[in-house]
Amino acid sequence: MPxxxxxxxxxxxxxxxHSEAIGCVVExxxxxxxxxxxxxxxxxxxxxxxxxxxxxxxxxxDQPRILSGLNxxxxxxxxxxxxxxxxxxxRPGDYDNVRAVPRPGHADLAAWAKWHGNQDPxxxxxxxxxxxxxxxxxGGIALQELERRGVRVxxxxxxxxxxxxxxxxxxxxSKESRALLSAQMEALEGKDGPAVIDDDxxxxxxxxxxxxxxxxxxxxxxxxxxxxxxxxxxxxxxxxGLENALARMAFAIPAVKGVEFGRGFxxxxxxxxxxxxxxxxxxxxxxxxxxxxxxILGGISTGEPVLMRIAVKPTPSIARQQRSVDLREMRxxxxxxxxxHDPCIAPRAVPVAEAxxxxxxxxxxxxxxxxxxxxxxxxxx
Length: 381
What we know:
Layout: E1 4-5, E2 10-15, E3 21-27, H1 37-47, E4 65-68, E5 81-86, H2 108-115, H3 132-148, E6 152-160, E7 163-164, H4 175-187, H5 199-214, E8 221-228, H6 242-250, E9 256-261, H7 272-275, E10 279-282, E11 285-288, E12 296-297, E13 300-301, E14 306-312, E15 322-326, E16 331-335, H8 346-367
Antiparallel strand pairs: 1-2, 2-3, 3-5, 4-5, 6-7, 6-8, 8-14, 9-14, 10-11, 12-13, 15-16
Helix pairs in contact: 1-3, 1-8, 3-8, 6-8
């Protein structure tokens, strides 16, 4: 079961939801990066379970322990960085009734076809959203390196259960829109609970999640993620394009069922004259007037904000009785799922979206940077 991704910046994730620990190995990090463990811990806390009635009741501190990859000054030293997170609140017995009865919407049925009952179903095993914790360790460090290069990554809940938040003002490159986008990103800093721009939208989202929870059900959502400050010229056409890298990394998040960039699927309903981004001279360089492309053309960054949205399905583990089968006896079975589960996965997936965007962008920057005259690695002189 390979669980690695990336070219120059390569990330491997190990462990299961209820194993003794989970963790990651990150190869290819630039050396000399001071890793701020306080900031990394605060980032991890945004994803951690047990935050309120809208999240699972499982309690995990999710504070990573770095085993290698740092020097005595707390900087990356060029060696592979290895981090582990202990699993301290496990209850594998909650899953005894699903060891041969696949949970609808989970990977259980497909995993049985592949490993014939040898897989670990407790909490989802290696398929669990729990494995996004070490992904956030790697991504949290990548975020710090991107900030050092002048790139800022931020995400929010664009929609939950049909309740919409204010969208990032990233499709228009006017000064007014850029000022609004900056204010929106600032508005997301330091907020408690789900990351939203509009507090009224957050309250309505939480009410919808709670209603689903009380009815023994779950809801899904859409996460919007943006990277500002990425230089033009990063990426490559066809197979190594930025969209390719971002989409592949985004689909590593369990429950993600769709990814789009810029106007996304809306572009299919527009004319070329509406969807094309006009190009003019701005601040002494060629720049787009709009950003319908989402900051990427031909798999290469344009210098405009990179805008990605991911669709997150409703949590498949619900309290309602569901129809399944006993795979050992091959008979129909009524299934009631036990354990602790998020009534909506999307809120805790927001920092994960930031992590995977940071990893994909940094890997692309290291692997396929802008070439020749005018190329810039983004670092301050």
